[in-house]
Design a protein that fits this description.
Layout lengths: L2 H11 L5 E10 L2 E11 L4 E5 L6 H8 L7 E6 L2 E2 L4 H7 E4 L11 H11 L4 H14 L15 H12 L6 E5 L7 H16 L3 E6 L2 H7 L2 E6 L2 E6 L1 H8 L3 E6 L5 H9 L6 E3 L4 E5 L3 H12 L5 E7 L3 H9 L26
Parallel strand pairs: 3-8, 3-9, 6-7, 7-8
Antiparallel strand pairs: 1-2, 1-4, 4-5, 9-10, 11-13, 11-14, 12-13
Helix pairs in contact: 4-5, 4-6, 9-12
The structure holds adenosine-5'-diphosphate (ADP) and magnesium ion.
Length: 346
């Protein structure tokens, strides 16, 4: 019997959530790194665990992936308790950490084959899967090159490919795109969307609000180890309630008339003369519809009229009072990398 078959059996047996955390707490001495964190991830969906550096993301992932024992609380992956059934949890999941886990001196293909044999897959199966994964991650040409010659983006893709060789139904990704250039980031997002389409459940940590917005079905925002907000990306944006009507007039000489008209219907108008643009706070779609009707009946010609929802950045700011910008030069690894050691072993 192969790990692949096991993993499928595990997935088929469990009909509940793919990932569950219940009141997870992790203390390091006096310091509480994770403070009563609970969430549940339905199968085939993506949870974004969003928070700034030091928020407790990696510590949470380490507890969920059996690398670290919770101080209190519990967690289940594919229905298996991380404390009582760590072996079954490990067979149901893949983990891509912040630090690349691949061997630099081997080629991409050799890395994949090595991991496949470690999982006990038969040789023919390993060769077939390796080729398939290299193809899927656009690494076929690079497959025979040693990894130390890979770009950052290629390494991340290989890292992900390696964690997929046993086709785990649940995948944990700890800041998968930190340190990648924008193009590699978008490429990786596409790969992740493909995995989810094929039924994989993802838990992804990120400091990038845009990334959570792009990929996650639900977002849990953590700061200083605590959950400070959760919901769909849309719900989170609605929470900060700072939508705005943005309107662009076609002719500069109609800007003043447009301002006066808008000002008669909303409490406050901001004018950007150079952009021929007016902005006004709005409660939502009904305000926007009202304004659209008013302008339709006027002589004013508009290039554009839209409702601008707050960005997740705005939401984070309104929730925490500070920005969630990753610190400069953040591509460096933090000292708390996921490793195969538990801290109890250190
Ligand atoms: N092994 C450890 N010993 C002591 N403190 C730790 C350890 N691991 C993490 N921490 C602390 O716990 C907090 C959360 O860290 P971490 O989970 O790595 O945050 P994130 O991944 O969100 O950046 C940080 O203040 C970090 O310094
Ligand atoms: Mg981290």
């Amino acid at each position: 019997m192969t790990i692949t078959t096991d993993a499928r059996a595990v997935r088929d047996r469990s009909t509940g959530p793919a990932i569950e955390a219940e009141h997870l707490v992790k203390r390091f001495g006096d310091m509480t790194a994770v403070d009563d964190v609970s969430f549940s991830v339905p199968q085939g969906t993506v949870l974004g665990l969003l928070g700034p550096n030091g928020a407790g993301k990696t510590t949470t992932v380490r507890m969920m992936t059996t690398l670290s024992r919770p101080t209190s609380g519990s967690a289940r992956v594919a229905g298996h308790d991380v404390a009582r059934e760590p072996e079954l949890v490990r067979r149901s999941m893949g983990l891509t950490g912040q630090a690349a886990t691949v061997d630099e001196l081997l080629t991409g293909r050799e890395n994949l084959r090595m991991m496949g044999s470690l999982y006990g897959l038969p040789g023919g199966e390993v060769r077939r899967l390796s080729a398939e994964l290299l193809e899927r991650f656009s690494l076929t040409d690079a497959g025979n090159k040693v990894v130390k010659d890979y770009s950052g983006g290629m390494r991340r893709r290989l890292d992900l490919a390696v964690s997929l060789i046993a086709t785990p139904p649940v995948l944990f990704l700890d800041e998968p795109t930190t340190g990648l250039d924008p193009r590699s980031r978008v490429e990786l997002w596409d790969v992740l969307r493909g995995l989810v389409r094929d039924g994989t459940t993802l838990l992804l940590t990120t400091q990038y609000l845009e990334e959570a917005d792009q990929l996650a079905d639900r977002i849990v925002v953590i700061d200083h180890g605590r959950i400070i907000a959760q919901g769909t990306p849309l719900e989170l944006k609605d929470q900060s309630g700072k939508a705005a009507i943005v309107l662009t007039v076609s002719h500069a000489d109609q800007l003043e008339a447009a301002r006066a008209l808008l000002a008669a219907h909303v409490p406050e108008v901001h004018v950007d003369v150079a952009a021929r643009q007016l902005t006004a706070p709005a409660d939502g779609l009904s305000d926007m519809t009202r304004v659209a009707t008013v302008f339709e009946r006027s002589e004013i010609v508009l290039d554009d009229l839209g409702l601008q929802r707050p960005s997740l950045d705005d939401v984070f700011l309104s929730l925490t009072g500070h920005r969630a910008e990753p610190p400069a030069g953040d591509s460096a690894e933090t000292p708390t990398e996921p490793s195969t050691q538990t801290e109890e072993q250190r």
